[in-house]
UniProtKB/TrEMBL annotation:
Gene Ontology cellular component terms for the protein in this record: cytoplasm
Function of the protein: Phosphorylase is an important allosteric enzyme in carbohydrate metabolism. Enzymes from different sources differ in their regulatory mechanisms and in their natural substrates. However, all known phosphorylases share catalytic and structural properties.
Organism of provenance: Methylocella tundrae
Official protein name in the record: Alpha-1,4 glucan phosphorylase
GO BP terms, alphabetized: glycogen catabolic process
Classification lineage: Bacteria, Pseudomonadati, Pseudomonadota, Alphaproteobacteria, Hyphomicrobiales
Catalyses which reaction(s): [(1->4)-alpha-D-glucosyl](n) + phosphate = [(1->4)-alpha-D-glucosyl](n-1) + alpha-D-glucose 1-phosphate
Top enzyme class: transferase
Entry annotated with the keyword Cell cycle: no
Name of the coding gene: glgP
Keyword annotations: Allosteric enzyme, Carbohydrate metabolism, Glycosyltransferase, Pyridoxal phosphate, Transferase
Length: 821
């Protein structure tokens, strides 16, 4: 670098060092000698936060000044992870900050590790919201995320005797340096009560809702910097608070606990992410959460619109509201309530504004995840909103009942009310009707939406369903997770890689270049060493970094078929024992993921993975050729460690069931080869990386449907496959659970007689695909060629591309790609 530049960097480092020292002293209140790593973390976070705030205030000012249309992303989940490295990366301060800390004898990597993950999400849907927030800022879209500030995010998972135990997560216990409390922004949220009819001055009638109970929503803002810090958006999370802190009379009369009852009840709304909803009390709490944050967000954005533009009727010109699944769909009824009841807008006009403002993303076709709420619960908790939903439904059904094909069957399918098992409100239907666009998250998923759950609704609104294939932010999932690979790639494509991911295509020209292959492979090797150290620390299992790292990390669910993977491990285990001296390929199967606390089968699958690992890892006959490890407490920051060290990415869901997947993209970008079904975005990944560079196997979505209609008994498939029957037999007979031989009898019986996820039907195809993986692995130049081509062709899966599509085709807002400063 030229001397002037070096000197400028030197000055930057000194200034950052002084700022960190000032923060440590005056904001943390610690001296250099007394400071813990956490103190240094806070001081460093606060110093980068200063730069973020500088740019944040000008972003807000400029959006105001230019009258920009705003995008509101409503999501019950934001699975953010850690923010220190992310903020430093996007503010382009990471090298200088690392150097400044080094001068103080502090290691940035140590500080990275002390930050708690913000785990305000369950899985893919929540992580997508976090990637989208980052890309919206990167593209200078004036966007707000709205959600709930859960006191406790996704539970902490521990594994004891192979079993999952859930513990409360407590991310706020050491404070949160990234957020700003906004005590002046408080929205009243009503529940229950009754409705009066009033006559307006103009003689029209007006419905007035008098809630029986009110809680307050308190705003907390977190700035979200885009790449190069050019634009900063706001994530506004709501915390629930009681109107009165306690009942003083009751407290003074000696009932100290009773005096706090109302407060506990109110504050329970933002207490935990996804409270168990297997009980009626749990279901009610979940609905209260949904309305709480939808209402607060709508009140807040309508207030902002009116203060800027004076007239709520122009809302749709200046605001686009995206519903992340149906969880916030009650916002549609809430906007109608605000427009019709509070602003006296005529119904039809209010409905037009609502439809023009809202759009809805669907993330799953699984029937158990399609939200419906019992009508009696809605009537009790949200009486006015239930009335509004009935009116929306009546007008909607009146429109279609005139059509020639309006049979009772069709009207029942179109209705907002499902009458088939008690009366329930279909939130997907409400979201569909109240939106101008509805999208799926991969091409296959969007196509399936039109033929399955939304078939009838699509027929009365052709063209409303569109596709927006998911993406991931390359800042986090390439640069922050895999800095060494990012540097290598930048040498080839230039340092605008994170501005325009499509430049990655240039890397394809080097796929066969042996010296490039060597450097690419060396980076993988180093990442595997790092992961091996972490595995050793966390679970005490020693891994061979030259083994093939075969990785299956995601929520544990039957449709994701971790069992299929475990069965292959068991089959290979038996083979190695039978023929120990064939030239086996050393392999490590890595699993991680959480099971919902109430999902018994998923928890049994975790136990099976652990039990199988225990036997295999300690069998000397294997001489380390096969290891099976289950890493506890999977979260965003663990994913950032595992993905860059993966050779093989397991994406093996039953075709038609995984809406998209986004982990699949993170792996392929980092150069893992995928073994997968033609499901979700795997289909598009195959189209981009080329079918020779991905291992596709198994039934297609159409074949799954056909097969299921013939029955889901697994006996034939098992009888046809000696390897499968042997593996099932050893699991069922207790080879892996000697302390309780029948532990997996039920699981194996289910696969044998009622194999809904078609594990047995796909086993041989999967087994053979794994052998094709081995053949490629043996041919190292061919393996690395495929890996490099995966990286090279993944640019399209940047969430910048996804967000640009939403901006143009759904939100009607301009985007400004980031540029070099
Ligand atoms: C209402 C409750 C039962 C519920 C809570 C959370 C239902 C669904 C969810 C979460 C769903 C989810 O994470 N879906 C995933 O969304 C990703 C982002 O689009 C997809 O990539 C992934 O395939 C899909 O399973």
């Amino acid at each position: 670098a030229p001397a002037a530049e070096t000197q400028a960097i030197g000055e930057d480092v000194a200034a950052i060092r002084d700022l960190i020292l000032a923060k440590l002293k005056y904001s943390v209140g610690k001296s250099v000698t007394a400071a813990s790593p956490h103190d240094w973390f806070v001081a460093t976070a606060l110093s980068v936060r200063d730069k973020v705030v500088e740019s944040w205030l000008s972003s807000i000012e400029s959006s105001k000044r230019t009258g920009r249309k705003r995008v509101y992303y409503l999501s019950l989940e934001f699975l953010i992870g850690r923010l220190l490295i992310d903020a430093l990366t996007n503010m382009e301060m990471i090298d200088e900050t690392r150097a400044a800390l080094a001068e103080l004898g502090v290691d940035l990597e140590t500080l990275r590790e002390v930050e708690d993950d913000a785990a305000l999400g369950n899985g893919g849907l929540g992580r997508l919201a976090a990637c989208f927030m980052e890309s919206m800022a990167t593209l200078s879209i004036a966007a707000y995320g709205y959600g709930i500030r859960y006191d406790h995010g996704l539970f902490r998972q521990r594994i004891k005797n192979g079993r999952q135990l859930e513990y409360p997560e407590d991310w706020l216990s050491f404070g949160n340096p990234w957020e700003f409390q906004r005590p002046e922004i408080v929205c009243p949220i009503g529940f229950g009560g009754h409705i009066d009819t009033e006559t307006r001055p103009d003689g029209e009638l007006r419905q007035v809702w008098h809630p029986g109970e009110t809680v307050e929503a308190l705003a907390y803002d977190t700035p979200i910097p885009g790449w190069r810090g050019a634009h900063i958006n706001t994530l506004r999370l709501w915390s629930a608070r009681a109107v009165d802190p306690l009942r003083l009379d009751q407290f003074n009369s000696g009932d100290h606990i009773g005096a706090l009852m109302d407060r506990v009840r109110a504050e329970s709304i933002s207490k935990v992410l996804y409270p168990g909803d297997t009980t009626p009390a749990g279901q009610e709490l979940r609905l209260r959460q949904e309305f709480f944050f939808a209402s607060a967000s709508l009140q807040d954005l309508v207030r902002r619109h009116i203060s800027l533009y004076g007239d709520v009727r122009t809302l749709a010109d200046k605001a686009a509201i995206q519903l992340n699944d149906t969880h916030p769909a009650i916002a549609i009824a809430e906007l109608m309530h605000i427009l019709v009841d509070l602003h006296d807008i005529p119904w039809d006009e209010a409905w037009a504004i609502t439809q023009a403002t809202f759009s809805y993303t669907n993330h799953t076709l699984l029937p158990e995840a399609l939200e419906t709420w019992p009508v009696p619960l809605m009537e009790r908790l949200l009486p006015r909103h239930m009335q509004i939903i009935y009116l929306i439904n009546a007008l909607h059904l009146a429109k279609v009942s005139g059509e020639p094909d309006a049979t009772g069957h069709r009207l029942a399918a179109l209705s907002l009310i499902d009458e088939s098992h008690g009366r329930r409100v279909r939130m997907g239907h409400l979201a569909f009707l109240g939106s101008h666009k509805v999208n799926g998250v991969s091409q296959l998923h969007s196509d399936l939406m039109k033929t399955t759950v939304f078939h009838d609704l699509e027929s009365i609104a052709p063209g409303k369903i569109t596709n927006k294939t998911n993406g991931i932010t390359f800042r986090r999932w390439l640069k922050e997770a895999n800095p060494a690979l990012t540097s290598l790639l930048m040498e080839v494509v230039g340092d605008n890689l994170l501005d325009n991911a499509m430049v990655l295509e240039k890397v394809a020209a080097l796929a066969d270049d042996s010296s490039f292959q060597e450097r690419y492979a060396a980076i993988r090797r180093a990442n595997k060493m790092t992961l091996a150290r972490l595995v050793q620390q966390r679970i005490g299992v020693k891994l061979n970094p030259d083994a093939l790292f075969d990785v299956h990390i995601k929520r544990i669910h039957e449709y994701k078929r971790q069992v299929l993977n475990i069965l292959e491990a068991v089959a290979i285990y038996e083979e190695i024992r039978a023929q120990p001296f064939r030239d086996w390929i050393p392999r490590v199967k890595i699993f991680a993921g959480k099971a919902a606390a109430s999902y018994t089968t998923a928890k049994l699958i975790i136990q099976l993975a652990n039990d199988v690992g225990k036997v295999i890892n300690s069998d000397p006959a294997l001489r380390g050729l096969l290891k099976v490890v289950f890493l506890p407490n999977y979260n965003v920051s663990l994913a950032e460690r595992i993905i860059p060290a993966a050779d093989l990415s397991e994406q093996i869901s039953t075709a038609g069931m995984e809406a998209s997947g986004t982990g699949n993209m993170k792996f392929a970008l980092n150069g893992a080869l995928t073994i997968g079904t033609l499901d979700g975005a795997n289909v598009e990944i195959m189209e981009h990386v080329g079918s020779p560079n991905i291992f596709i196997f198994g039934l297609t979505a159409d074949e799954v449907e056909a097969k299921r209609s013939q029955g889901i008994n697994g006996q034939d498939a098992i009888a046809r496959s000696p390897k499968l029957s042997e593996a099932l037999e050893s699991i069922a007979s207790g080879v892996f659970s000697p302390d309780e031989p029948h532990r997996y009898r039920g699981l194996v019986d289910a696969l044998t007689y009622h194999d809904f996820f078609l594990v047995t039907a796909d086993f041989d195809a999967y087994y053979n695909a794994q052998r094709a993986v081995f053949r490629r692995w043996r041919d190292k130049p061919a393996w690395w060629r495929s890996a490099i081509l995966n990286t090279a062709h993944m640019g399209w899966f940047s969430s910048d591309r996804t967000i640009a599509e939403y901006a143009e085709e759904i939100w009607n807002v301009p985007v400004t790609p980031p540029g070099r400063k």
